[in-house]
# Entry
Amino acid sequence: MKTLMKTLIKESHYKLNPSMVRLAHHERIQLGSPENGQKDYYGRNNITTVRPEPVEGHNQKLLKCLMFLALIFSVYMITIQPVMAHGEKALEPFIRMRTIQWYDVQWSKQKFNVNEEISVSGKFHVAEDWPASVPKPEAAFLNISTPGPVLIRTERYLNGKPYMNSVALQPGGDYDFKVVLKGRLPGHYHIHPFFNLKDTGQVMGPGVWLDIVGDAADFTNKIQTINGALVNMETYGLGNGIFWHSFWAVLATAWLLWWVRRPLFIARYRMLQAGLEDELITPFDRKTGKAILIGVPLLVFAAYSMTANKYPKAIPLQASLDQILPLPAQVNAGVVGVETIKAEYRVPERTMTFSLKIKNGSDKPIQIGEFATGNVRFFNKDVPKPELGSSESVASSEGLSVDNAAPIQPGEQRTMTIAAKDALWESERLDGLINDADSRFGGLLFFYDGQGERYIASLTAAVIPKFN
Ligand SMILES: [Cu+2]
# Structure
């Protein structure tokens, strides 16, 4: 046992220590002939020592070759189907449930022509119980998820104000948005509004299928600049863009190849070990380096001066944050108060059950109509359903049940147990919550008073899973 340990330690030492590697068996081979003064790239006599490589058998090579071919052909065996989703369910459920809570999302049209303008509008609540592991929404960008440039965005509003940049959102705040889009490429696409949260990812809003009809060649995208010139955005500056991208790509590749074409890694490492680092760089290398060091900034400055001369009235790209304050409270507006006491998720029944303490501060009886979380909507079948809108949110029309169906009277305080039960918890990958380190849920609860008034409360609590 002891000898075995000793050999093992010796072996690993041998593998780790480069000086011992250098002491290993080497073969002297002669690449050129030192007698006639032939030198190698670095000006040394052409005698190099190398460690012999293990010789691979003929059969092994053939086998490797066959396995590689088999691997390539196996790809053709996979049945490829068009992708019908694009990562809406990929984000952790606690982020989808407890960051941006979308509701009332509407599309003005779902079938329209190339060049035709449509809009998507809606509301969202920024959860009070923002996850501790998610950076605060200090920079958030409202965008539209599309499969490529099938639409262009022409206008964007938050709380009725036009804005260009990212915006800081306030946890607990309520906002409404509107984005105007114009059809560009004909086709059938799944489109969502979404928020890009800095350092977190994309929180998708509800998606819809849009049909853009017509001819792609008819698309026009002309704008007027501040100087009054009319430019076509589809082609404006394209040649210039291609030129500069190619120029830098060629220069960078040439610089890389300049250094890569000579011995790298092991040969270089050995020379360093041998104290021959001065021989790694030739005088010509130094000259080229100096030319690049002076030439590139000069070129950039010259091109910049030419551009500034040609376009004296230009504004830089804007990098500030837009400041837009939340609307007066829409969710938790103070009329109907809801406190979540506890929540339980029963895995086999795919049911989330919550206990709530509800206080009706309005002057009419109210009923619970809907619970919405992570773009999934659970409706109470005993309460008239609101208009669903065009966003085909994933909905369970009878998924919400309450333990006491009697309306909550004005001034009444009641503790209720409600259950949201549907396979959607699983198919929308929201049940993954119980495997997260942050197993708290969040969502919006909608109350209706039967006379068109709606009250919204946000719910949040730790979820206790029940596995049987
Ligand atoms: Cu989608």
About this structure: The helical segments are 2-16, 18-23, 58-77, 93-98, 238-260, 265-273, 283-310, 424-427. The pocket of copper (II) ion is lined by residues 85-86, 88, 190, 192, 207 (CB under 6 Å).
